[in-house]
Design goal:
Strand content: 5-15%
Radius of gyration: 24 Å
CATH class of the largest domain: Alpha Beta
CATH superfamily of the largest domain: Aldolase class I
Number of strands: 8
Number of helices: 15
Length: about 400
């Protein structure tokens, strides 16, 4: 294979990393270089959250160390039998790119993943060297997210957590059966064991020693994982149930959903039956409702699959009209959080304001409510939806109009 320039490697390996969604940079330890020492910042203005149209964070230099891989996962474009252009960065090249891109204000941090070359230990050791070199030799204080290889030696995982702000270990598929079928070289139990070890290390690092001193930090921004959506037959209920268990059992900062992109010669993968990016978007919305709005999986995915035409909260409200309209001046917080168009901040403002006065319809928009969605489901001073809540055509007010498909 001819030698590639750094620019050519960057083009290949940044494009190869686009399928990895786990790159949000929130939650890291605050470090900055305003004292004249080091380079970069991991908090405040150092990490800005810029998002691409499909919802992925683009504030980080997101690359693979290499897209060579010894595994042959059917859903992965970089699998061993895939006919894609291959490239590999050296440790020094990744360090150089990160520092130079930061100095040019292109990025605020690094998200680094990799295909598996030679062995999990060899690959993880190179990734750890990159993080250690950035911290120790370059004085880099920006955000670093390392994709951790679950089969790597525990001492490598331990060192990775000392240099990185966040670690992530991908569970890959929604079910163990799906992983066994599409990625038989990977072990679901081994992946979960590695995630549990990361959680234990994080918890131990936050405990004070017998001398009263805290131990060395370990992945202060936590760990995350990624689930591939649409490569197997798992429905949205199964995916969200898995996510709920992952949050509870491993203390995850975030579960990321990655829409499966069809690969021409991946014969083991199911054909796409639903728009993948829209399904991914609905899963993110549902995940948010489960984490911050008090919903249960059985409520928002009772039919197995989420409604693609309307968001999950609105879909739930349309199916549970008997619970509405809600009086914004009397309803409990738990019920207000279930009103379409009401976010958590809106509900907090509403609860604070109604202690002092009766809220009117026009007050709600000023508190951040999306009244287009909320008005059929609420009662306020000066407003009643009357028969709108039970109107047969209510769903049509929110669902996109039908389109005439082309015959050609």
């Amino acid at each position: 294979m001819p030698a590639r320039t750094l620019s050519e490697k960057l083009a290949i390996l940044s494009d190869a990393a686009k399928y990895d969604a786990s790159c949000a940079s929130s939650g890291g330890q605050r470090r900055d270089s305003r004292d004249g020492k080091g380079l970069g910042s991991s908090g405040g203005s150092g990490i800005c959250h810029a998002y691409a149209p499909d919802g992925r964070c683009i504030s980080l230099l997101k690359i693979l160390m290499t897209n060579f891989c010894i595994y042959d996962c059917a859903y992965c474009v970089n699998r061993a039998t895939s006919r894609v252009e291959r490239a590999r960065f050296s440790v020094e090249e990744v360090v150089k790119l990160t520092v130079e891109f930061y100095r040019r204000n292109y990025i605020e941090g690094l998200f680094l993943s990799s295909g598996i070359i030679r062995s999990p230990d060899d690959t993880m050791a190179d990734m750890v060297r990159i993080a250690r070199t950035l911290r120790e030799q370059e004085g880099f204080r920006g955000y670093i997210h390392l994709k951790t290889i679950p089969d790597a030696a525990p001492e490598l995982i331990d060192e990775a957590g000392r240099w990185a702000d966040r670690l992530s270990i991908n569970v890959e598929m929604p079910t163990e059966a799906g992983l066994n079928r599409l990625a038989p070289e990977k072990d679901a139990k081994g992946i979960r064991k590695a995630m549990a070890e990361v959680r234990l290390r994080r918890e131990a690092s936050r405990e004070a020693s017998y001398t009263g001193k805290r131990k060395a930090r370990f992945a202060p921004a936590g760990q995350s994982t990624q689930v591939i959506v649409g490569a197997d037959a798992a429905d949205d209920h199964a995916i969200l149930s898995q996510s709920t268990n992952l949050y509870a059992n491993y203390g995850l900062s975030r579960v990321y959903y990655s829409a499966f992109s069809p690969i021409p010669d991946a014969s083991k993968v199911l054909p796409l039956a639903r728009p993948p990016l829209l399904r991914e978007h609905r899963l993110y919305q549902a995940d948010w409702l489960l984490r911050f709005y008090g919903f249960e999986v059985g409520e928002i995915a009772s039919r197995g699959m989420l409604d693609l035409d309307v968001d999950p909260k609105l879909a739930w409200a349309l199916e549970n009209r008997a619970a509405f309209p809600v009086d914004v001046n009397r309803a409990a917080k738990e019920m207000l959080l279930r009103v379409p168009g009401f976010g958590t901040k809106t509900v907090q403002r509403l609860l604070a304001a109604r202690r002092h006065r009766t809220l009117r319809y026009e007050d709600l928009a000023a508190m951040g409510a999306v009244m287009k969605h909320a008005k059929p489901f609420i009662v306020a001073a000066g407003w009643s939806p009357r028969g709108l809540t039970d109107a047969a055509a209510l769903r049509a007010r929110f669902a996109p109009p039908p389109e005439q498909l082309s015959l050609f």
